[in-house]
Amino acid sequence: MAETKPKPKPKIKKEAIEMPKQKPKERVKNFNEVALGYDEAQAIEEANRCLQCVKPQCVKGCPVEVPIPEFIKCLREKKYAEGIATLKTKNALPAVCGRVCPQEEQCQVNCVLGRIGEPVSIGRLERYMADWERDHGFQLPEKPKPTGKKVAVVGAGPAGLTAAADLIKLGHEVTMFEALHLPGGVLIYGIPEFRLPKAIVRNEVAYIQKLGVDLRLGNLVGRIHTIPELMKSGYDAVFIGSGAGLPMFMGLLGENLGGIYSANEFLIRINLMKGYNFPEYDTPLRLGKHVVVIGGGNVAMDCARCSMRLGAEVCLLYRRSREELPARQEEIENAEEEGLVCKFLAAPLRFNGDEKGWVKSMECQAMELGPPDASGRRRPIPIKGSEFTMEVDTVIIAIGQTPNPIIQRTTEGLVADPRRGTITVDENGKTSIEGVYAGGDVATGAATVISAMGMGKKAAKAMHEYLMNKK
Amino acid sequence: MYKIVSKTDLAHKETLFEVEAPDIAAKAKPGQFVIVVPDEKGERIPLTICGYDTAKGTVSFAFHQVGKTTKALGCLKEGDTLMNVTGPLGNPSEVKKFGKVLCVGGSIMIAPALLQVKAMKEAGNHVTTVLGCRSNDFLFMEAEAKALSDKVYVASDDGSIGYTGLDFLKDLLKTEKFDHCVVLGPVVMMREVSEITKPYSIPTIVTMTPIMMDGMGMCGVCRVTVAGEMKFGCVDGPEFDGHQVDFDELVQRQRLMLPEERLSSMLWEMKGGCKCGRNEA
């Protein structure tokens, strides 16, 4: 039956259906998910806003090319099983992407509805479909014909999980090596529960295991097996998705004082080790009353929002101005609703400690913006004589991460950028070693979940071609 | 899951586990460590490797039962399992022919120190071993040390066995020349030995035991200052030049979470602690 087109044609609703959320005052006291998700009626109403463009622009903005109009069509016809199957042809982690992708600068920025009003809330609809599947159990795709090829995937984060899913669906045997004791990479150790519940990550990983991927936890490639050893032991190709796990510090005096955490340490304690549930969980977390988070990206926002949930007053210190904040707009708004105070155009100079070696104050300097630097953002320039002191008892340094060097150091012939620490790859993720591919943050430097997934996908495609043409 | 194939009580509250972990056993070298996660709610704790058997596929590590996690570990029996053991982590020790090597092991770190003694001996060195302990109740593996080393000295804090304290080393160094020194033990001991060897310019390698979490370079909680530079204990170490380490900072950083550690331990005791009846305080 053709879609009914009642006359006169109903006006397109310009506003998107709002996402139900926990109220700021409530949510800042718990670690439960902030965004509650659409109910069925809301999802269908929002799906009905989609124009079903013949030449959809939204898909062009998606790094993994999700067939967006197709799955939205299924949704509004309540063909949920078909819809999720459609989604999963391209995206193995829709419940994650529906929550943490920056849709506003990818698919949704291209939505033609955006010209007259708000674009379709593609991410929220994706989340609705994925959550529907979680409540109704997954349907596995048909088992592919085995190719007889073996692939090793290093790192069970967004890039690795995507590559593993695509490769096993193509009939290759896939073993995934994860260094931590739980799978998910940044999804499990980095992104907090209130943005991405860990049950959802576990569920997405379970799906990939059900596809047949053999997951080995606590297995640090480079220390147990090196990449050349994996190749020698019978793997026909390797995908490296080891992420950007090495925290950056500032090199300032007093940086090793107690109470100064790297964002990674802080987030690993909270997310991976469930330190907010100490002492029920064994990993402690000491947080003072006056927390300063240094940085302005999504990781900084996550640290700030975790700190507020643990009862602290939080100030974000960023050396540029609000316009240059690299975090997602939505995250900044959420954080400010929850009580975040931002101090722009300032940077720390040194940290002072008390007699027990705990940080007690921070000397800072005001900045002004000069001409744009290599990143295209205006360069902060210190203002002479503007020094000031802030009383603090906890500092979280969230100024970025670089790739972990263990694999680069233990793989002879693997070309890496000596300055950035990234593995050098071509546009398909091919490294300098035949059969070895890389993607995600280890190749690009710290970026987003979806860009890592996009590269995992591209590399999987290239690896498939390589494997099928080999010998 | 990682099965405990044997458990040895080394001394009072000092325990050695041999755990089934063939992948780790195949790659472990002296100087490296593992991270142990006892169970789902457990923390990640670093323990220095003190033995490995590639044929059996096992790796050994020893621990002093001092906090909640190590006390709970001490309650486990042979056949029990650990949720995860990750390793081998950190850089292996530099083992080669130095000539005359002084190897100092203190308290629980006597166990991994003997692995170094063995490796140094196999590399053709003349090895003098010092076993340091709090008192004679805490001394263990003396026989093993004697079998492995050319010469063994014992010292205790209270003088209940061997020399009292490490002052005897000052006299020893006046008469004997050493080409290399390794120290594994409590920070105070590593600092003291480093100070004693410094006037003689004996290269002295200490094994850092800062707080760690992931053990693979991710969190930076293990950062130490060596020769004025920030280093990560897990990936740059765990061994560093004892004459360059900022020990004061190390001691301070080791105590970062002390109140929480005490709370956790106390609550565990209050809930009944070890149910196996072996570990009366």
Describe the protein's topology.
The complex is a heterodimer of chains A (471) and B (281).
Chain A lengths: L23 H4 L12 H8 L20 H9 L3 H9 L5 H7 L6 H4 L11 H15 L13 E5 L3 H12 L3 E5 L8 H4 L8 H13 L3 E3 L10 H6 L4 E4 L5 E2 L12 E3 H10 L17 E5 L3 H12 L3 E6 L10 H9 L3 E4 L1 E8 L5 E14 L5 E5 L5 E4 L2 E4 L3 E2 L3 H5 L25 E3 L2 H4 L4 H21 L2
Parallel strand pairs in A: 1-2, 1-4, 2-3, 4-16, 6-14, 7-8, 7-14, 8-9
Antiparallel strand pairs in A: 5-15, 10-11, 11-12, 11-13
Helix pairs in contact in A: 2-3, 2-7, 3-4, 3-7, 4-7, 5-7, 8-17, 12-13
Chain B lengths: L1 E10 L2 E7 L1 H6 L5 E5 L7 E9 L4 E7 L3 H7 L6 E2 L1 E6 L10 E7 L3 H13 L3 E8 L8 H7 L2 E6 L6 E2 L3 H8 L4 E5 L2 H11 L6 E4 L15 E4 L2 E4 L6 E3 L5 H8 L3 H13 L11
Parallel strand pairs in B: 8-9, 8-12, 9-10, 10-11, 12-13
Antiparallel strand pairs in B: 1-2, 1-6, 2-5, 3-4, 3-7, 4-5, 13-16, 14-15
Question: What is shown here, in short?
Answer:
The complex is a heterodimer of chains A (471) and B (281). With 471 residues, chain A is of the alpha/beta class.
Describe this structure in words.
The complex is a heterodimer of chains A (471) and B (281). With 471 residues, chain A is an alpha/beta fold. Chain A folds into 3 domains: 24-136, Orthogonal Bundle (Fumarate Reductase Iron-sulfur Protein, Chain B, domain 2); 150-242 and 405-469, FAD/NAD(P)-binding domain; 249-399, 3-Layer(bba) Sandwich (FAD/NAD(P)-binding domain), CATH 3.50.50. Helix content of chain A is 32%, strand content 16%. Chain A is built from 17 helices and 16 strands. Chain A has helices at residues 24-27, 40-47, 68-76, 80-88, 94-100, 107-110, 122-136, 158-169, 186-189, 198-210, 227-232, 263-272, 298-309, 329-337, 406-410, 441-444, 449-469; strands at 150-154, 173-177, 214-216, 237-240, 246-247, 260-262, 290-294, 313-318, 341-344, 346-353, 359-372, 378-382, 388-391, 394-397, 401-402, 436-438. In chain A, helix 3 packs antiparallel against helix 4. The mean pLDDT of chain A is 93. Chain B is α/β, with parallel strands linked by helices and 281 residues long. In chain B, the strands form 3 sheets. In chain B, strands 6-1-2-5-4-3-7 form a 7-stranded antiparallel β-sheet. Chain B has 2 domains: 2-90 and 259-270, Beta Barrel (Elongation Factor Tu (Ef-tu), domain 3); 100-254, Nucleotide-binding domain of ferredoxin-NADP reductase (FNR) module (Rossmann fold, 3-Layer(aba) Sandwich). Chain B contains 8 helices and 16 strands. Chain B is globular, with a radius of gyration of 18 Å. In chain B, strand 3 and strand 4 form a beta hairpin. Chain B has helices spanning 22-27, 68-74, 110-122, 142-148, 168-175, 187-197, 247-254, 258-270; strands at residues 2-11, 14-20, 33-37, 45-53, 58-64, 81-82, 84-89, 100-106, 126-133, 151-156, 163-164, 180-184, 204-207, 223-226, 229-232, 239-241. Chains A and B meet through strand 5 and helix 12 of A and helix 1, strand 7, strand 14, helix 7 and helix 8 of B.
